[in-house]
Structures are given as C-alpha cells and as structure tokens.
Amino acid sequence: MSSQPNLVFLLPDQLRYDFLSCYGASFIDTPHIDALAAEGVRYERAYSAHPVCVPARVSLISGLHASHTGVLDNGQFLRPDYAACGLQTWSEILNAAGYYTAAVGKMHFYPWDLRLGFQYRVIAEDKRWLHIRDDYYHFLHARGLRRYHGNEHAGYHENKGAIINRLPWECSVDHFVGQEACRFIREHGTDGPFALMVGFPGPHCPYDPTPEYATFDPADMPPAVPEVPGDTPKLREQTIAGNRGPWNGVDYSEFTDAHKAKIRAHCAGLVKAIDDEVGAIVAALREQGLWENTIIVLASDHGDYLGDHNLIGKGHFFEASCHVPMIVRLPGQAATARNELVELTDVTATLLALAGCEVPAYMDSIPLPGLGVAAPQRECIVGQLAGGWSLYDGAWRLSKYATGEVTLFHLEEDPHEQHNRIHDPGCRERLAAMDAALTRTIMQAMQEAFFDRRVYIRDLSQDPWFGREGWVRPFPRRVQDR
Predict the structure, then answer these.
(1) What's this model's pTM, rounded to 2 decimal places?
(2) What is the CATH number of the domain that holds 474?
C-alpha cells in the first residue's frame, strides 16, 4: 500500500450545511455523512466566499480568490492559457506527485469536457444542461431514456420546482455519479495513490427526488427565515427575474410558506439520496482495503435559500447562501468540531498539504486547521461576486450589492439576519472600519487580479534592453510576479 494517502473530495452542489444531521438538522438523518464527521473534523464556520457555481469551483481548482481568477459569475472561466500565466490546478500538482487524479460527476468546466489536469473523467453535468452529450447522456441513451427539463414534470410551476423525477432511481443522476465513483475505486483504487473528486449534481434545483426519496413531510421542515421588508427588495426582484429564464422558468413572485415547505421536503429527499451514495462510496473503499489510508473531504460550492428571506437559490452573502458544510475525515481521527473561520477554497491547499505537496506561494488557499498541518488562521472572510462584496470577521458581516443595498448583521446576536444595523447610530464606527477594510482589500485584489497584463515589476527607466528598438513586452506575466 502506498505511503501517500488516497484523497476523496465529495462536492454535492448547493447543499446547505443545516440539512445534515451532524450539523444539528432534526428533520433528516444523514448517517453516512455523519460517520465521516464522527471520524474527523467538522468545521462550524465554513464559508463559500464566492457563492455561485462557477466562481466557487474555479477558485477551488486554482486555489485563488475569485478576484484573482477574474471569474465572478457563471458566464466567466479561467483563461485557456492559464498555464502560461504560471498557474497549476491542484490536480496537475498531484499528478506530478504520483497521484492518479479523477473527476466524476459535475465539474462545471467550460468546455464541459475540459480536463484541467484530471487524468480520468466520467462526466454528469448540471441538471439544467439538457443538451450536453456527456457520459450520463450516453448512459441514458443506451436505455432509451433522456434528461428531462423540470417543466416536463407534473406540478413543476405550481410547486415552484418541487417535483417527482420521471426517471427511475437507478437512472437518476446522483446515483449514476455515486456508482461511477464506486467503479473507479474498484477498478483503479489499488493501482497507487489516487485523488478522486466526486461532483454530485444534487441537491441543486429542480428539487426532483425519485419516489423512494420523496418521503419527507413538508410539515416537518424548519420554517424559512422571514424576509425583513425594506432590507433587500431589489435582490428579491433580481432573483425573481433570473429564475424566470428558460433554464428554470419558475415564477417566484408568489412564494408562500407552503411552497417553501414543499421544496424543503423535496430538497431533503435529494440530500438523503446523496447520503446513501456517500455510504456506497465508503463501502467500496472498505471492500478494496483502502479505508485506512483514505482521507475524505466533504463540502459544497454554496448553499440554497429554500425560501429564507423570501429568496431562492444563492448568489448573495446571507447565511443560507454562503455558509457551507465542511468535513474532513482522517483515518484514526477522533471527532472534532472547529470554530475557526475557514473558506471553501481552503480545500485546495488542504488536499495538497495532506498529499505532502508544497502549496504554491501564489495561492490564496491555506490548509484547514486541526489536521496537523501548520497554517495561519483567517481573521476574516472577504466575499466577492460580480454583484456584491462582503466582509465577515466572525461576528459582524458587512455586505454591499450592485443594487445599492447594504446590510450589516451581528451574526452572534442575530444568526437569522433579521436586524440590519446599517443605519444604527451605535454602529457608525464599526461600519466605517469594516467598510474601509473591505474597500482596501478589494482595491488590492483588483490590482493583483491584472497580474497577467503587468508590463514591469520595477522601474523600466534604468533597463537598457527596454531602451533598444524591438523590445518585446513579456506577456502574459506569470502569477508569481504579481
């Protein structure tokens, strides 16, 4: 058996941390994910600094903050010549260290069949991308089946995306991903150290469990956090307009408590199904004698409002959107809960460090605490997306949006974000200090973000080569020179 640990990174899409029983959810039992936490470290305050699919995932693959990748919404991606900029993905670094790297499921790359260093790929992309001819498409096609849009299911519009999947459970996308991950483990797990990333397309909307998992009672769901009238009405308007698009087509202008309870129940069904797939992956590791030498990381790219603040989806800096689960299972580790501030992107440096690889100095990612790897502690989380910025210091969160709306919440006293203190006279000093810190950080990040366009690092006036005809500007500059 290799002395290097195997690495398994589980990334369900759009999974709220508080929909797992190990994080205190009483309405659902997730024993397989809980078992990972019982043999590892559970991070209580883990956040996605870029709570939208592609920005979060590009930051993960690169170890860079979104302001440095330039990927701030789902329509952007890494430049194709990223290697010429001195960047390496974590999979490329692990390849060089002797790992066999695999990506199974949803990765949300552009183009969708891009490898970004992964040597083995089985692709089952976003549930909303109906026309992609990925491996899941061919799996369905061989059985005379196809993907369905949510609106091809009964009750889709009336129930705000909460439906019963037309496909049988054995052909559902999350089961396909789970089984393909198990197949990789059985066929390649004993060949040497491997790093396997498993991207479950669920529990992202549509909220479409198969009948076996559509068993949760809406009456048992925790109620949605209320909307505070006047706080962020423009964010709600944007959310309604965005979801009316053809990718979804659901109108959330009417969004009742009954609607919210139903989508929560269906989302719980999807989470339960993914928990069972996690159990199957663990069983495959045990069958192959790999369990004692395998580290498992579970996280999510962002959360899902599911009606909190009268919103749906993600994309802002409320708890439901940016607070994510984070669990690291280490062989022989006693159950530990950590309260430090950590970022989703810190998974990147953690995987590298646990594999014995040096974390590139240019990365913003740092190893997670409590795993035996020396690392600095984060003092704050700076969030950035195309439509908003945020600074969270562990007690207070300031968020500023392109709509002109601004919120300031004291999370320790107000965990449900019901009391916006932005106009509180008693918070003027705190607001000024946080706003200055956020502005300073974003200014620095914007300067560093354009490293590839920098002409010089130091003054060119004393460079004799620059004074000669035919001098060629170095392009692109490498990230190491920023």
Answers:
(1) 0.96
(2) 3.30.1120
Cis peptide bond upstream of 206, omega within 30: yes
What are the structure tokens assigned to 430, written together? 């705190």
Residue of 242, 228, 193, 209 whose CA lies nearest to 387: 242
Question: Tokens at residue 358, please?
Answer: 């040096």
Q: What angle do CA 385, 78, 456 make, to 5 degrees?
A: 95
Which CATH number fits the domain that encloses residue 206? 3.40.720.10
Q: Is residue 127 part of a domain?
A: yes
Q: Measured between alpha carbons, how far is 242 from 461 in angstroms, rounded to an integer?
A: 51
The full length of the chain comes to: 482
pLDDT digits (tens, 9 = 90+) for 4-19: 999 999 999 999 999 9
Burial 216-226 (b: 16+ CB within 10 A, else e): bebeebeebbe
Nearest to 194 by CA among 287, 96, 102: 102
**Residue 312: exposure state from Cβ atoms within 10 A (0-12, 13-18, ≥19):** buried
Phi, psi of 243 (to 5 degrees): -80, -10
Residue 229: left if φ>0, alpha if ψ -120 to 50, beta else—which one? beta
DSSP string, 56-101: HHHHHHH---HHHHT--STT----TTGGGGT---HHHHHHHTT-EE
User: Is 1 a member of any domain?
Assistant: no
Cα dist from 53 to 71, 108, 144, 367, 442, whole Å: 11, 8, 30, 22, 21
Domain holding 161, by residue range, is 6-382
pLDDT in tens, 197-247: 999 999 999 999 999 999 999 999 999 999 999 999 999 999 999 999 999
Place of tokens 């976003």: 126
What DSSP string runs through 231-273?
Answer: SSHHHHHHHHHHHTSTTT----SS--HHHHHHHHHHHHHHHHH
Give the total number of structural domains in the chain: 2
> For position 2, what pLDDT does the model report?
60
Distances (CA, A) of 120 to 113, 198, 345: 11, 12, 22
Position 319 in a domain: yes
The residues with which 103 forms a beta bridge, in sequence order, are: 121, 197
Element (H, E) at 342: strand 336-343
Among 336, 358, 382, identify where a domain stops.
382
Report the run of H or E that residue 339 belongs to, with start and end: strand 336-343
